[in-house]
Design goal:
Alpha-Beta Plaits; TIM Barrel; eight-stranded mixed barrel; 18 helices; 16 strands; elongated
């Protein structure tokens, strides 16, 4: 209102200036007229409807602009649903209202399944069309008085006042059924169709504040997605709510780290045990927060379950190549990669673009294949690995000896390095005769196949000595050097 008043005063001042200017202008055209006649004509013009019409038009325009500004501050521009900021305001308000009036309400989190694939295949314009149409389905599925919002990307939320878990599940199932029936028709009669994964949580049954309620609903949504998608998940008696909230907090932490580019590479040297020279650096993924540096073991499973691993890999490699160039390092980098990441459609094109941008030769990259994912399609993995090998990239098997799959990889495709599982390396001394025999046999097998070997978890001078005597060629571990954000040469060893 204050803005409108200021604008009204400015408009009246402007009109006054215009009247005075008109008086002077009339003197130029009618030099024989005195000031009295000129002011009379201007006075008659001022009393006409024209200035009033101009004033009304200006005020109406200002009011419309003010309303649009307020709307854009609370609404998502693409879907016209409430945005993330407004969602949190409304959720906190609903928490307080629920406490005062002592009723239950539920929170529903929705993630569109496989939306990235739609964007990648059909383009962002089609993806935006799909999101707009989904928002219409979403508004029609929730009840009158419910509060739907677009949280970010293909993530949506709905606050369901006066709604227990059973009623919330009914609303969620109605949305799933609408999704199953919906198809976005494209030119050429091709259609786009997908499903959604939904998590629900109820206040105060499942959480005592807005943050915990969101974390729990978000973790239930991740659970729905990881157990098959196209389903609704809600807390039950045999679910550890503390564990679920922890997983939800990790998911949010990962999303924020990706969005804010807080994924950073740490480098750990791999040395030649014969002369202690640095063969390469292994690139380790870290997330940096305000108070700590978080290792990959604490978030990588969550990142993979929520589909963020591709973006994390991209940020990690981009920064690793850049730092290597800044430090004048022309050697080899070992980069961890899951078989699932290998088969993503955008992996190889993104990698090529980054290598070209940083003038990085493929022979300087060794991808470490891990056993974190069971390989459901070994032929597809073999095809992806061979495509990369044909371009000059090399491969290592990580944690070799920890399971059958590592031996299977040797038969599946050609590798350059075996990284012997750290449990065998650490237990070679003292009474670890069996572990020592296993390590020596792995070294012998690798030698017959023309594959180099690397010992992991070398944490003492004794372990390094055992590695040297077992036939393993290279080593890494805390005794040699801890992971660091800098590429540094380790101290010499005895």
């Amino acid at each position: 209102m204050e803005k409108v008043q200021k604008t009204l005063i400015a408009t009246l001042l402007l009109l006054t200036c215009c009247i005075l200017l008109a008086a002077f202008s009339l003197g130029a055209f009618l030099p024989g007229w005195g000031w009295e006649k000129r002011l009379m004509i201007i006075f008659l013009i001022a009393l006409s409807p024209l200035p009033l019409m101009i004033l009304v038009f200006l005020l109406r325009t200002i009011k419309e602009h003010d309303e649009q500004t307020r709307r854009f501050a609370t609404r998502d521009a693409l879907t016209d649903l409430y945005n993330q900021h407004t969602f949190w305001d409304l959720l906190n308000y609903e928490i307080e209202r629920s406490k005062r009036q002592q009723y239950r309400f539920s929170l529903m989190l929705v993630d569109i399944d496989n939306f990235k694939a739609i964007n990648d295949r059909y383009g962002h314009e089609t993806g935006d069309r799909f999101l707009r149409q989904f928002s219409v389905l979403f508004k029609n599925a929730v009840r009158k008085g419910d509060i739907p919002a677009r949280y970010a990307g293909d993530n949506f939320t709905a606050i369901l006042p006066l709604c227990d878990e059973s009623q919330a599940r009914t609303v969620a199932l109605r949305l799933l059924e609408s999704m199953r029936r919906y198809q976005l028709v494209l030119p050429g009669n091709e259609s786009v169709q997908t499903t959604a994964s939904i998590g629900i949580a109820t206040f105060p049954d499942h959480a005592a504040d807005a943050q915990d309620l969101y974390l729990l609903a978000e973790s239930m949504m991740v659970h729905a997605k990881s157990t098959g998608k196209d389903r609704v998940s809600a807390p039950c008696e045999d679910v550890n709510i503390g564990t679920l909230k922890s997983a939800g907090a990790k998911s949010i932490m990962v999303m924020e780290a990706v969005r804010e580019l807080r994924i950073v590479p740490y480098f750990q040297p791999i040395i030649n045990v014969a002369d202690n020279t640095v063969l390469a650096y292994e690139v380790l993924t870290r997330i940096v927060t305000a108070d700590r540096v978080i290792p990959a073991a604490e978030f990588i499973d969550v990142a993979e379950s929520m589909g963020a691993i591709s973006k994390i890999n991209s940020i990690l490699m981009e920064r690793s190549f850049s730092l290597a160039n800044q430090n004048g390092y022309r050697g080899t980098l070992f980069i961890n990669l899951s078989p699932k990441a290998l088969m993503l459609a955008d992996f190889l094109p993104t990698l090529r673009a980054q290598m070209t941008a940083h003038d990085f030769d493929p022979s300087r990259i060794v991808f470490e294949i891990t056993e974190r994912d069971a390989v459901k399609n070994p032929e597809a993995v073999k095809k992806s690995v061979n495509a990369l090998r044909n371009e000059g990239f090399r491969f290592a098997i990580d944690d070799f000896g920890s399971g059958y799959a590592t031996f299977h990889y040797i038969r599946l495709f050609e590798v350059d390095f075996l990284k012997v599982d750290g449990d065998f390396i650490r237990n070679m001394g003292g009474d670890g005769g069996m572990d020592r025999a296993i390590v020596m046999n792995i070294a012998s097998l690798a030698g017959h196949l023309g594959i180099k070997t690397i010992a992991e978890y070398v944490e003492s001078a004794e372990i390094l000595s055992n590695v040297r005597s077992s036939g393993i060629q290279y080593a890494q571990g805390y005794f040699i050097d801890r992971p660091s954000p800098h590429m540094r040469n380790p101290a010499p060893y005895a």
